[in-house]
Amino acid sequence: MTLTDLKPNNAADIAQAIAHGCRVLPGPRHMIEFGAFFDGIGDARVVLLGEASHGTAEFYQARAAITRCLVEHHGFNIVAVEADWPDAERIDRYIRHRARREYDAEAFVRFPAWMWHNAEVEQFVAWLRHHNEPLAMRDRVEYRGLDMYSLHGSINTVLRYLERMDPEEAKRARERYSCLTPWQEQPARYAYGTRTAHQQECEDAVVRQLGELLAKELEYAAMDGEDFLDAAQNARIVATSEHYYRAMYRSGNDSWNLRDRHMFDTLQAVMSARGDAAKAIVWAHNSHIGNAAATALGWDGQFNIGELCRTAYGDEAVLVGFGTDRGTVAAADDWDGPMHIKTVNPSRPDSYERVFRHVGLPRSLTDLRVEKNRSARDALSQRRLERAIGVIYRPHTEFHSHYFEAVLPEQFDFYVWFEETHAITPLSAARPQGVPETYPFGL
Fold first, then answer.
1. Of 124, 358, 412, 443, which alpha carbon lies 20 to 30 A from 102's?
2. Per-residue b/e over 291-301, b at no fewer than 16 CB within 10 Å?
3. Cβ(418)–Cβ(324) below 8 Å
4. SS3 for 51?
5. 202-253, pLDDT tens digit by residue?
6. What is the rounded CA–CA span in Å between residue 328 and residue 356?
7. In contact, 351 and 387? CB cutoff 8 Å
């Protein structure tokens, strides 16, 4: 079946089945009331919270409300987001009241800066800091980045750590990383160079550096376990990034799968460091946290963190998707382009979004698990189109740019619906007047 074979058929009839099985949600600004609808998933080990775009306020607000419920009432102690590890590490220091560190670059300035540098995240971070303050350090919620685009920052972090802990090893590490040094700011050019034989591959050197660091874990971690975790993760990022950028020139599947495998492995490393009490909440795009095996991505050979969590944790992993019909969104026209507030087209007649629009509710929560809501699950089990807006949105080519096939009840356990949504509020790059130096978004 191709995309053009899909028809708008019986959307209104399917909407009736959903209406009987869904729950009406309050607005996500009512955090306590909104979050209470998710009390039933508190027994999970991992809860993955999606978004249908990277620039929608209601998705951030909803995830904040759900996270607050899971943290306050169900013992969740890790928030892991689709952001670069070094940037998120600054937030972690801020919310856990850890010692401030000196940095040689601004945080959250890489495209798309607005994805995490926005008022909705600022409010959530402020709540996390307030929540953590009276707790012992071992009980504080941590904030971690799962992504791997921080080659330059990660190399510098490893070197600074070793200069403090083991100056002789720092010299050797600097030599190993020197292969990548000219390309830190533009790693895609390194990958192109390896394809044209103008640049030797740096894989052996960066993998060797990771191995040397991990071999001294007992020695280094005994002196400072928190900082060792950070250094080790940054060394992993360097090794994975080197592989990732070379894979970009082989096939889309290789680079996608490397990235999502890295995000999953990072989540596993953070949970392992936390110990048996670890319970994690993941914030990432629907395309990452839904089960890829139920989408065109998976049918084409790609997997994602949602599928890997489903395999690793079974029913202890809960996958929550989000969707909207129309509104506004913060997005760019092209990669590395400026952010604009764009109008989101009403959903296509042959899409899941149109089915939920027919339900006629401004906000709803649908349980898609077969044992809980068989009628809605069965009604939604035909392949349909689903919309995905990332950091780029092209309304004029939306069908080809932003829709893909999926089977929603196999992709998600729950589906959160907003009929109309609005763009996030990006923050200024400068730290607001009067805000202390520990303010995370202006460091």
1. 124
2. bbbbbbbbeee
3. yes
4. coil
5. 899 999 999 999 999 999 988 877 899 999 999 999 999 999 888 877 666 8
6. 18
7. yes
Sign of CA dihedral 248, 252, 348, 359: negative
Its sign, for the CA torsion 138, 144, 148, 150, is negative
HSE (side-chain half, CA atoms, 13 Å) at 297: 27
Contact 364, 23 (CB under 8 A): yes
Tokens at 70, concatenated: 């899971």
Q: Token pair of 114, please?
A: 């607005």
**Quick one: pLDDT at residue 7?**
46
CB atoms within 10 A of CB 411: 27
Tokens of 186: 């533009």
Helix 252-274 to helix 305-313 angle (10° resolution) is 50
Place of tokens 């080790």: 232
Which residue's entry shows tokens 């035909």? 382
* Distances 185 to 136, 156, 233, 243, 304 between C-alpha atoms, Å: 39, 12, 19, 16, 27
The full DSSP string for 138-193 is GGSPEEEEEE---HHHHHHHHHHHHHHH-HHHHHHHHHHHTTTGGGSS-HHHHHHH
Q: How far apart are CA 119 and CA 85, in angstroms?
A: 20
Q: How confident is the model at residue 329 (pLDDT cuts 50, 70, 90)?
A: very high
Residue 38 CB coordination number (10 Å): 25
Question: Residue written as tokens 């509710």?
Answer: 361
Q: Find the mean pLDDT for residues 19-37.
A: 95
Q: How far apart are CA 118 and CA 116, in angstroms?
A: 6
CB count within 10 Å of CB 328 equals 18
Total residues belonging to the chain: 443
Q: How far is CA 153 from the centre of its chain?
A: 19
pLDDT digits (tens, 9 = 90+) for 404-433: 999 999 999 999 999 999 999 999 765 555
